Amino acid sequence: MTNERMMRGIDKWQEHQSSYQANDFEVLYDHWIRDSFNQIHPDVKQKFFSRLDGWLFHTHAFLQGSAFQNDARERILTVGRIFRSDVTYVEDMRQLDVNQLTYIADQQVARGRLYSFAQGGLTGTGGWLLLGVDFPLMTILNLRAVQLIGLTFGHEMNHPYEMMISFKVFHAAMLPKRLQSAAWNDLIEEIKRNEHPYVYEGNDQITGEAWLEQPLKQSFKSLFILMFRRKLFQGIPLVSVAIGAYSNYQLTKQMTEFAMKFYQYRHLMMEQEG
């Protein structure tokens, strides 16, 4: 696939995102969320989202310090050396062309989707503990998947700027589809105006009211799991397992697709700039 064909594919995907029309249920749901949050005192909302952002920063620090993440980094660099023997650091991955990088990132995406599928299926067994940690685990798995895609395309996540960009991608990818086009445009503008590659000078707020729609959907998934967990087949709640596995897989698919398109676009843009 040539760079031009890939760019056309990204443009077509973006056109599809921007032309998405919310259905009546989504509009009603959006109004309900806004009305609910409007009844909460602004200071309470600010503290809530500030703590949520803080938890995401701690999650990032945990991931970057984990052996699991370091092993994944080394796997990425090892595969990169198949195409270029002089790949030593994450930044060296930018020397590969976009098709080679996409091939390597696809391996990370497939592994991430498998983890989400398995974790969702396990959650579907209906245990209270598993249901309670479902969303935190999904957040960790999806943030990790986004950051591994960024690493594959040569962006070191330990740098403050790249860390914040990965958070912004994570946030945008989790938004409802009707809001993703605007978030995409904001991300593109963010990377176009960056003058300091290691210092982030933009808005460092990550989460917001719109972002909470996906966590609320996850809570509805938990309700369905509880409803069907007593419908057993040979001692296994197959319906609940299927709901959990499918829901988590679809969320990771949505997020990794968005992240892949973003980092592909960014790589092509950097190549054009020389």
UniProtKB/TrEMBL annotation:
- Return any one Pfam family short name: EcsC
Q: What is this protein called?
A: EcsC family protein
InterPro entries for the chain: EcsC
